[in-house]
Amino acid sequence: LTMRERFLFSSSCKQVFGACRKSLLQSLLQVASDVECKENSCIATEVCRLKQESTQLEDDMLKVCTRVIDMADHQLSIALSVESMVFYLKTIGDYLRYKVSFLKGSEKEHAVDRAQACYDEAAERAAIELPACHPLRVGLLL
């Protein structure tokens, strides 16, 4: 992919993930506000509704992350340039990092380890092939 196409890919993924995250936060704030305004007898019902909504939104966010990781994995397997490889490795690392906040136990540990491995490989390739001021190389440092 060209630099512009990678930018569009990245922006699209961020917009979908951002929309899911925004929905989750709005849902949490709305229920918290509702709970403050209602009598104690209604609080249990509101908490139950909150758990159901947040679980569904978390599942949606996990699905988005998984789809982005799968697409980036596929693109990585056919990438020809180091710049593309670094981009896709960083993308995989980023979305694994997002996934970690919703995972538990060994799944979480595996995702953390894989994200770190992706970042390390991307940084290694970038250090060898990309100039120090290249946006992808700088982005890996942040």
Please name the defining characteristics of this protein.
142 residues; mainly alpha; 5 helices; elongated
Your description of this structure?
The protein is mostly helical. Helices cover 88% and strands 0% of the residues. It has helices spanning 3-37, 40-78, 82-100, 105-129, 135-141. The two termini are 23 Å apart. The mean pLDDT is 84.
Q: Can you describe this structure in just a few lines?
A:
The chain has 142 residues and is mainly alpha-helical. The chain is 88% helix and 0% strand. The chain is elongated and about 60 Å long.
What topology does this entry show?
Layout: H1 3-37, H2 40-78, H3 82-100, H4 105-129, H5 135-141
Helix pairs in contact: 1-2, 2-3, 3-4, 4-5
